[in-house]
Amino acid sequence: MAEFGTSKFVKKISEITHESYVHGWDERNGGNVSVRIDREDLTGFSDLAEVKRSFSLGFDARPLAKQYFLVTGTGRYFRNVINQPQKDLGLVQITADGQKADLLWGFEDGGLPTSEFPSHLMTHIERLQVDQTHHVVMHCHPTNIIALSFTQELDEAKLSRLLWKMQAESLVVFPEGIGVIPYMTPGTTKIGRATADKMQEFRLVIWPHHGIFGAGADLDETFGLIETAEKAATIYSQIGAQGGKIKQAITDDQLRKLAKAFGVVANPEFL
Ligand code: 2HA
Ligand code: ZN
């Protein structure tokens, strides 16, 4: 394992990318993560005074002007981040005019932020409107969620209810349900806009035939959110593997009791 310096964010993002890889959700360069870091939490990054390079963002990120993001690099492999975080991660600051990102640390061998950086930043903008504690956006390729996007209708109510009913945990962890966008070409501002629009209502958004986007307060919470949805989808796959016949299931009434017991409000459009 590499020396992480003293930033707790570099250590944590390295651990989470490795875990996601081990789960099988980040083949090759699949997946990307960004963490918004508050100014007072920048301790542990050496020498932030100098702008090393600048990247054009391709959209107006003015709502995030001056904000700092630790982000994975385009083309980089999640399985490697833990061994070379200074190459595969970069700390950038959005410029005052919202047009560019200034590199302050990392990407030491010439790297650039993930191709999905527009989707990440647009999502950060929307999540901040809903919840100021939100700092993390994570994208990866969880196998069973992707499989669902082939076998199920791309309908938010139906997908949310299916995932809620696969285990008692789902409704408690994502009571608002799960969003879904139509299939689109990745790495574009168009898919970024569609994802961010869904993030006004949801913290999880399925990219059909591709993967998932999750958002949350910190890396543990965001990864846990994706893990919970993928666990539910895995149970659905296993039910299929066991013959697909459901003898007994969680009822709507049981979901309502669950929500009440855990003090969460289930999306009233879905339940
Ligand atoms: O970072 O997963 O969607 C590679 C991808 C693009
Ligand atoms: Zn992807």
From TrEMBL:
<dbReference type="GO" id="GO:0008994">
    <property type="term" value="F:rhamnulose-1-phosphate aldolase activity"/>
</dbReference>
<dbReference type="InterPro" id="IPR013447">
    <property type="entry name" value="Rhamnulose-1-P_Aldolase"/>
</dbReference>
<comment type="similarity">
    <text>Belongs to the aldolase class II family. RhaD subfamily.</text>
</comment>
<dbReference type="GO" id="GO:0005829">
    <property type="term" value="C:cytosol"/>
</dbReference>
<keyword id="KW-0456">Lyase</keyword>
<comment type="pathway">
    <text>Carbohydrate degradation; L-rhamnose degradation; glycerone phosphate from L-rhamnose: step 3/3.</text>
</comment>
<keyword id="KW-0479">Metal-binding</keyword>
<feature type="binding site">
    <location>
        <position position="210"/>
    </location>
    <ligand>
        <name>Zn(2+)</name>
    </ligand>
</feature>
<dbReference type="InterPro" id="IPR036409">
    <property type="entry name" value="Aldolase_II/adducin_N_sf"/>
</dbReference>
<keyword id="KW-0684">Rhamnose metabolism</keyword>
<feature type="domain" description="Class II aldolase/adducin N-terminal">
    <location>
        <begin position="11"/>
        <end position="237"/>
    </location>
</feature>
<feature type="active site">
    <location>
        <position position="116"/>
    </location>
</feature>
<comment type="function">
    <text>Catalyzes the reversible cleavage of L-rhamnulose-1-phosphate to dihydroxyacetone phosphate (DHAP) and L-lactaldehyde.</text>
</comment>
<dbReference type="InterPro" id="IPR050197">
    <property type="entry name" value="Aldolase_class_II_sugar_metab"/>
</dbReference>
<protein>
    <recommendedName>
        <fullName>Rhamnulose-1-phosphate aldolase</fullName>
        <ecNumber>4.1.2.19</ecNumber>
    </recommendedName>
</protein>
<dbReference type="GO" id="GO:0019323">
    <property type="term" value="P:pentose catabolic process"/>
</dbReference>
<dbReference type="GO" id="GO:0019301">
    <property type="term" value="P:rhamnose catabolic process"/>
</dbReference>
<keyword id="KW-0963">Cytoplasm</keyword>
<keyword id="KW-0862">Zinc</keyword>
<dbReference type="InterPro" id="IPR001303">
    <property type="entry name" value="Aldolase_II/adducin_N"/>
</dbReference>
<feature type="binding site">
    <location>
        <position position="141"/>
    </location>
    <ligand>
        <name>Zn(2+)</name>
    </ligand>
</feature>
<feature type="binding site">
    <location>
        <position position="139"/>
    </location>
    <ligand>
        <name>Zn(2+)</name>
    </ligand>
</feature>
<dbReference type="GO" id="GO:0046872">
    <property type="term" value="F:metal ion binding"/>
</dbReference>
<dbReference type="Pfam" id="PF00596">
    <property type="entry name" value="Aldolase_II"/>
</dbReference>
